[in-house]
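Section 3.1: Structural characterization of target chains.
Under the original work plan, the team committed to producing a structural model for every single-chain target entering the pipeline before any wet-lab resources were allocated. The record below documents one such target. The sequence was received from the expression subgroup and is listed exactly as submitted; it comprises 252 residues.
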Amino acid sequence: MGSSKPRQLLLFDIDGTILLSDGIGRRLLDEALAARFGPKVTSDGVNFTGRTDYAIVGDALRNHGICSSEHTQLILQILDDYSARAQDRILPSDVRLLPGVDRLLQRLHLHSGVQLGLLTGNLKATAYFKLEAAGIASLFPFGAFGNNHADRNALPALAWAQAYEHDGTRYAGQDTVIIGDSVHDVRCGRAAGAFCVAVATGHTSATVLSAEAPDLLLADLSDADYFCSAVLGSAPPMPPVPDCNDSPMNQR
């Protein structure tokens, strides 16, 4: 990715990429499910990593044999309940920025060639509750979210539309960098024709991420100089990434 492009859209995932939230999202979603169907209906067995909240709820319902002619409306009602519960329950003590993230984001925010945005499976409301708790919500003026579409691969086009509304710039795949911690982030970036940065700070090991052939694989986001050089300019070969995260935790 060269420096000849005047402006790049950097779309960040949230959970496992820029922060950890100690599973608060799963706990609140289980509360919403239990309020509707009783305590036996939970999200147990559902993989959260890199997936949209819409798809996660759909899987939870199917796992418990809950089908309805109004399935879509039912999912949306549960997500509304989940979002309402999250409003006053996600606190600064529940979130932790990952190594180097604050410094990197502040640097990118000041970079004239960069526009920051979000591409996350979180609902828009819960995404910003987490970012507000972490003190970085103002750095992300727009994004594409799990309530916009069940399929993560549909989100880049929605983010481009939001970017155009925000600053009048028309972005496409070649102008976009997608940064995430799961195979779904890399596959989403590939589908969009974007530059893919995989970071092994979430629930997916560096070995698994490497197999998806991202354009850049990082152990974490602690080296802002290297990130900016590799993503926005020239960079030396990337050293091997230590594989220190082989056990998925599947928390959101």
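Residues 21 and 95 are 4 Å apart (CA to CA).
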